[in-house]
């Protein structure tokens, strides 16, 4: 029984570490740390910036996206916006072509065969001239200060990548938007604390981040989570990655559990691609990158396996102590709660704590499925974006 006790408690500790202990550690030790102070000011000779965007059937949002980029107060003489259409079949191409007449710094390329975001971005890089690249998504809107607040940190030669803060919109009580907002908000805080402590922000918000041109690594074929790949390559090259809270972007938060579940499966598959690619960064174990990678990402990615180990080891330990009896019944109740949440949702009753539990368990289920999809092998990285709000 000793082995089952070991498995039970090591799994409990792993889950507590990634969700409770590590964030608490960051909060304590980052509280008196300051963000990078070696920055550009508006009067300085700012670097040339290339904003890169791959689109597929984004007619509902592309007009607002283009306007939001060119409404920023970054010097237009230092800014270019390059868009590649991944064989769009709606009015996306037509809308972009009309805007080309208005903005001379807007460049547009069409591709007749669907290739996926990563392949399009790889090709757009070669067409760009900026010292700093901003990679963004069509449904992520800028405000007037977004670009400058991203770029200002690149005066510090140690910094290779800067992330934005995503501001969520359009919350609905009947879906999972509140749970997604809470998850994203917590992630932003953790990344910001990692930034202050060591410059080891683990994974930018893929909808908008900036990177030095010479640090960009071309995304491999059939790679699903390209933003994390690019981030980790920056670490391999000896530079830091940070999060800038004042570089704000705006996006509708996901509200549909089914859509988000499928998106999380895809992301989870990509997470294990990244773990397979960058496992060496877990060593030496005393480095800041290793500690952040293990604590923030790897243990979380393995969370579904820890939950299963806890449950099945608990079965063998059931008769050993009253504690294991209690934990066994609590686990069974926990696994039953999403069904109750689903039934209550059908009669328009929404209990926040139940929805949080449902969200947590389904996201871990997505990680579990994603692992086996990774083992099966990823055949392509082309996917259908979720439905956009206008």
- Superfamily at the CATH H level of the domain at 49-254? Spore Coat Polysaccharide Biosynthesis Protein SpsA, Chain A
Strands across the major sheet, in which order?
3-2-1-4-7-6-8-5
Proportion of residues in extended strands? 5-15%
Tally of contiguous helical segments: 12
Q: Give me the strand/helix succession.
A: HEHEHEHEEHEHEHEHHHHH
**Any idea what the shape is?**
globular
Fold and architecture overview:
The chain is α/β, with parallel strands linked by helices. Helix 1 packs across helix 10 (303-317). Helix 3 (92-100) links the parallel strand 2 (79-86) and strand 3 (106-111). The protein has helices at residues 2-30, 62-70, 92-100, 117-127, 146-151, 177-197, 226-236, 257-278, 288-301, 303-317, 322-346, 352-376, and strands at residues 49-55, 79-86, 106-111, 132-136, 141-142, 159-169, 208-212, 240-252. It has twelve helices and eight strands. It is globular. The chain has a domain at 49-254: Spore Coat Polysaccharide Biosynthesis Protein SpsA, Chain A, CATH 3.90.550.10. Helix content is 51%, strand content 15%. The model has no long low-confidence stretch (mean pLDDT 95). It starts with a helix and ends in a 14-residue tail after the last helix. An eight-stranded mixed sheet has the order 3-2-1-4-7-6-8-5, with helices on both faces.
